[in-house]
From TrEMBL:
Main location, first listed in the record: membrane
Cited InterPro entries: P-loop_NTPase (IPR027417), Rab29/Rab38/Rab32 (IPR030697), Small_GTP-bd (IPR005225), Small_GTPase (IPR001806)
Family note: Belongs to the small GTPase superfamily. Rab family.
One GO-annotated biological process of the protein: endosome to lysosome transport
Pfam family of the protein (one): Ras
Gene Ontology CC annotations of this record: late endosome; lysosome; membrane; phagocytic vesicle; trans-Golgi network
Name of the protein described by the UniProt record: Ras-related protein Rab
Amino acid sequence: MSHTSGGGERREHLYKILVIGELGTGKTSIIKRYVHQFFSQHYRATIGVDFALKVLNWDANTIIRLQLWDIAGQERFGNMTRVYYKEAVGAFIVFDVSRVATFDAVVKWKTDLDTKVQLPDGSPIPCILLANKCDQQKEGIVNSPAKMDEYCREKGFAGWFETSAKENINIEEAARSLVNKILLNDKLLQSNDKDGEKFALEHKIANGENSRESSSGKSCAC
């Protein structure tokens, strides 16, 4: 049995994750498969935005709630995407391996994402590319893993997975990979905050600004 740290406290995180890409690439199917373990051939096109919640018992003392935002393909360059993207900490961009045009559009989605949402330190949010419908005939560079690796490095993706919502291939793995990246960023941001506070405190001490002096300084400022 694992021991829980911090006197048995369970940490809870709520993370907003975007699922974006061209119309008909299987975004809704991926979410349904991941959240409800369910697949259907018959989904209506998502209009606007929809979201689902997935709760993960990540480890003995961490619960993660993923809010998965399913953003309609036709929304891409609408003004609303800025609102939809707000406060997201990770994203999947989805294309259909059997339709090369959906892969060509990936770079536009990535640029749109990177211009509209950033982490608190200004860096892009981690984004994983999903080559979906991998149970079907593949077109284009998705046939070459080496080329896909290179493409992802060039375009700033955190990685890529061949997925199939229908056959339940790599959906869990892709999500786990993205959550790991988000947790890593969380740790980095928290340690940077602490370093910042420590630096400010050291700066004050070095300049003789202890609390008594600074308060008396305030009172006689006329």
